[in-house]
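Annotated sample (chain length 202).
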Amino acid sequence: MSRYRGPRFKKIRRLGVLPGLTKKRPRLGSDRRKTFRSTKRSQYRRRLQQKQKLRFHYGITERQLLKYVRIARKAKGSTGQVLLQLLEMRLDNILFRLGMAPTIPGARQLVNHRHILVNNRIVDIPSYRCKPQDIIMLRDEKKSKNLIQKSLDSSPRKKLPNHLTLDRLPRYKGLVKQIIDRRSVGLKINELVVIEYYSRQT
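Output written by the structure step:
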């Protein structure tokens, strides 16, 4: 299973803010284990932490992330930028960025339970790669609408990234306008360090 089921605050304290994993924030001062050693990080540790940050934010396994890195290496353009585009264009992440789910695990559950249509077809694969002009909608069921409405009501309304639009009426409908650009990525990450981490495996 790619879904992380362990303590989420533990990962946030270690890796930093992971908006895709949980919308909660740890209390200030909850991590008192700051020592001199923590300031002198080795290059390997820094790469490992950035890789883990990417994994836990998007909720993917080590094998999945390695697969995405290999695809990005074969594509044209910057490997790091292509890697982030591949992850950001996953259906579960698109739902999260649209605000239709509070977290990426929550978005994955919506997809797995067949609540989501892409171009009027049910898609139950969270890793489905969305493309420009894809239309993402809810199934026309009361239960589906209630789930989305609960998420939208419980979360503060955020500005959508430039590559997405969302219409709430008459049905929740999201549109992927274009491939995401680097500035709109929803995670503070040094993707080049992640590529360096996998340099011997690709």
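Annotation: The first helix runs from residue 8 to 15.
Annotation: Residues 8-87+186-197 form a domain with the Ribosomal Protein S4 Delta 41; Chain A, domain 1 fold (CATH 1.10.1050.10).
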